TrEMBL record:
Entry keywords, A to Z: Cell membrane, Membrane, Repeat, Secreted, Transferase, Transmembrane, Transmembrane helix
Keyword Transmembrane helix part of the UniProt annotation: yes
Membrane-spanning intervals of the chain: 20-38, 50-68
SMART domains for this protein: PLDc
PLD phosphodiesterase domain mapped to chain residues: 228-255, 401-428
One of the Pfam families matching this protein, by short name: PLDc_2
Matches recorded under NCBIfam families: bac_cardiolipin (TIGR04265)
Enzyme class, broadest EC rank: transferase
Location(s), subcellular: Cell membrane; Secreted
EC annotation from Swiss-Prot or TrEMBL: 2.7.8.-
UniProt cross-references to SUPFAM superfamilies, sorted A to Z: Phospholipase D/nuclease
Name of the protein this chain belongs to: Cardiolipin synthase
Record-linked InterPro entries: Cardiolipin_synthase, PLD-like_dom, PLipase_D/transphosphatidylase
Amino acid sequence: MDPDERELTVTNLGAIDPLGLGYIAVEWAIRIIMLVVVPFRRSPEAARGWLLLVFFLPIPALVLYLIIGRPTYPRWRKRRFEAAQDLLARASREIKHSQHCCRPDLPERFLPAALLIERLGQFPTLGSNSVEFLSDYDGMVDRLVADIENAADHVHILMYMFADDLTGGRVVDALLRAAERGVACRVLIDALGSRPWARRLRRRLASGGVEIERALPVTFFQRRSTRVDLRNHRKIVIIDGRCGYIGSQNLIAAEFSPGLVNRELVARTSGPVVLEFQAVFVADWFLETGRVLDSPALFPHHHPRAGAVAQLLPSGPDYPISGAERLIVALVHGARHRITITTPYFIPDEALLKALQTAVLRGVEVKLILSRVADHPLVGLAQRSYYDELLRAGVAIHLFHDGFLHAKHLTIDDEIAVIGSSNIDIRSFLLNGEASLIIYDRTATAGLQAEQALNIARGERLAPEQWSQRPLLAKTVENVARLLSPLL
């Protein structure tokens, strides 16, 4: 080597930036450490998504992981949830022991599902319930306002999004009138879901004697703060412990997202199962306020009459076992003839994907009713990445065209109906507090199937040949989004 070249090489080596070397070392240290940490107590799908992000963007991935990497609450909330579990257990015992809430005799084929739900969420099956499905958006608000106007003792509302717009304002006005009559009104809203309206809502309701609290507030540098991605996504209303609402609809205008009209479904219920709604509200109220609601009027007796058998399944990261996911997988495995699932977000884990494919192989007719338009583009891309293998397996996919189908429900054979707030995605399975009403009744299931048939008629069935011919770029983008689906 020429002396001048040797001198130049030595000079270049000496000019290497120590900060640059340190940065590279830090990135590789993060990759190696996260390779060990991430897979611990995490599904292979979730680990894959995190490790992909870590490989390409190690430092941002580490920051994100420290913020939302583990679906766990602070220690103080875990202790409070243990106390809340005692409240749920006590309420469940009271319901079971009531002479008017006796456990009904279920056909043997329903017993495994009923036992699973009870062990996951503590609540038993209860008979003598009536269920009415409300798909008209404004009509549901009309019914709710009318029920609040007739309330005699209390109104409890647990809502992810409660807006101070014209739609939410109608409910606010009804609550203020009820409070003026001496009805105890309590409202629990998710701090993030209702954040744009929370301040005005609290001012209006509190000034009229309505108690209002925020669930899971996020505040920086305060002990009582919680993680931004863990939300209370339940949508429940209880009136006098006798009438209840559960489903997908928030208290907000149907067109709150520009260009999208939300299509929803809510179950208006009466009967003993409303007491299970009540128990969930009482537990959530205690979790957020530390105050126990123990008035006997909250759990009135329901006199026996003809009606459907039903039970409630609450689920979320507070619970040690993922309830919503296990319920759906178990019901799919138990289906004998037909399964119809309606959801706005379909990003299944491996267990559910295999269960649906296996159901088709067993001769079960499987239908998915999904929205053609998506309100979250990345989620929509990830969802579409599953269509190919589902279509090849024989699953029928129906894309709803008339607005954004935000309803969340399913039917199994002609005998079991499920409706609530839970989507078919990792967020609902692991990160959100959800509630699902399970109904063991042919009449109620037929009613829900009629709603499903209307949704199918307002869309089109996806043709496998047509879907397989979409551009390669679209397939590539969808599959990249799928790799990140555990983070969505």
